[in-house]
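If you are new to this repository, start here. Below is one unmodified record pulled from the training split, so you can see the exact layout before writing a loader.
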Amino acid sequence: MNADEKCILLAERIVKILKEGIHLNSDVMHFIDSTFSSPCINELEKIIADNSDCERDSLIELIFFPDEEIQAKLEDLLESHNYCREDEKKVLDYLSSRQIESTIHFPDNKGAFSVKMPYEAAGRFLNRLNIHRAIDKRISVAINNYVSEKLKIFVRVKLRNTHSELAENKILFLCDFFGKMEDESGDFLECLDFILSFLDEAENTSDLFSALIDKKRFYFKNLQRAEKFRQQLEKGNMETMILQGVKAPYINIEDEKRKMELIDKISLSVFGRTEYFEKAHQCIEFKFL
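And here is the target side for that same chain:
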């Protein structure tokens, strides 16, 4: 198959997916409701038709955002045909020539409307598919050998969406991750999301275990600050504490706890060990002015 043929093949698959319709998720609906005051379908169609509305482009871009469900329907093609950056323009030209119209479905069967995909939206849609990004062969082998069939596609999609090039130690870490983590548990993909974000942040880090424990310690200190603030708030009131220079720690306590749990699970699986912290030795005091 030559370059033009494989680009047409990908473009046709995208056209098919878009013509099947797009179902708006809760994040898109939250943006629509908060930005446009919970519009009905007719009002939304008018907004999209109004080229002078400054929020129109953001709305269209969000509607035609390729989420992981859409990407999963394309991953087999991307994996088998080795697309490059130059192929994006060919695919985009083909998509633009088709004048694609997609049916947009509201959640809970609350209605639907049709909208044509503008050229700019098609370009951003295609760019977010990361068709040129290849998964390291060693990681690909680990996925094929150890990840269950039902999760392989979504694992590949998440790896394709990573932003940075993976250093050698990170590649080996991911190979160990896929080889040692149980993927039958309900939090396997959650662990993968966390570790990919962590690896993206951990630039030039040679000791990944220590870096993970440092991240856990960071979350632990945040929880200690939140607990200390809660104790002080019980003894006084918010207005007095603000006047004294005490700032409330803006953290999601449950989220921080969950991240610590994920670090423990990942560290124990990959490295066979983790570290725990004693509250008595990590107490954070707030300074009053």
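Two things worth knowing about this chain: DSSP finds 15 helices and three strands in the chain. Strands lie at 22-23, 101-105, 112-116.
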